[in-house]
Amino acid sequence: MPISREKRPRIPRTEDWQTIQQRSLWPEQVTYEMIRPVVLFSETPAERAKETGEARRSLYRKVEQFEEQGMVGLFKPTPKQREDTHRNLPTPMRQAIVDLQAEFPFLHLREIATVCYIQFGRRPSHHTIQAVLASSPPPTTTRRRYPPWAEIEDPAERRLAVVRLHAEGLHIASIARYLQTSYQTVHATLKRWVEEGVRGLQEVPSHSQSLRHSSCLLDQTKPRCSVPPIRVPLVAPTWWPGLRAAYFLLSSSRPCISRPSLK
Description:
Elements: H1 17-23, H2 27-41, H3 45-52, H4 56-69, H5 79-83, H6 91-103, H7 109-120, H8 126-135, H9 155-168, H10 172-179, H11 183-196, H12 206-221, H13 246-249
């Protein structure tokens, strides 16, 4: 049988702050009663500060914290919660993580961390990202920002989409999967952007293609050296301002430089 409890004596309702403080059981309850007239009845923080004796700035800060976080903002974090770093992430960063997962569901958690580092200057751990995805609000949008590669009619817009996605921190393989094109296409687009800049977004004119074709024919007619060529690797910078080009430059190399004939 349930244990019978004695009925608590009924107390008349009051707005006297001293009585409310005495009757409150928890510090969080005191804080809520302090800001309740401001939150519910639009009383100014200055008026409520005079009634309670609380500093106006302190009361205003508690109201802002309650409006931003809800009832959770009334509770002081425990030592375990202080160690939980995902609670300390800024709200725009948490929302960006959720939006990334919605638009690019195939992204690895560590790649999401790289994107956060590029956009916010902070690299959360993959455990933190998991916690954010499990506890954060739904994404702000579920639509693609860029259609697939084949559906973009303007060639310059295609290449610009690749450049923008790579500048945000996405890897070449992820861009190719998102735009539904090949890895080599994305690689070549980014390489042209680094070498030619804005001109690399445009189509190559037909006369340039013919010149390249003729130069290739001339190279084929040249006598080949019996000594194997030396390949000089192109060293990529670790950071490219405005564009993370190191990922695709590491795999590229300069044209072969043949050794002089020993005859």
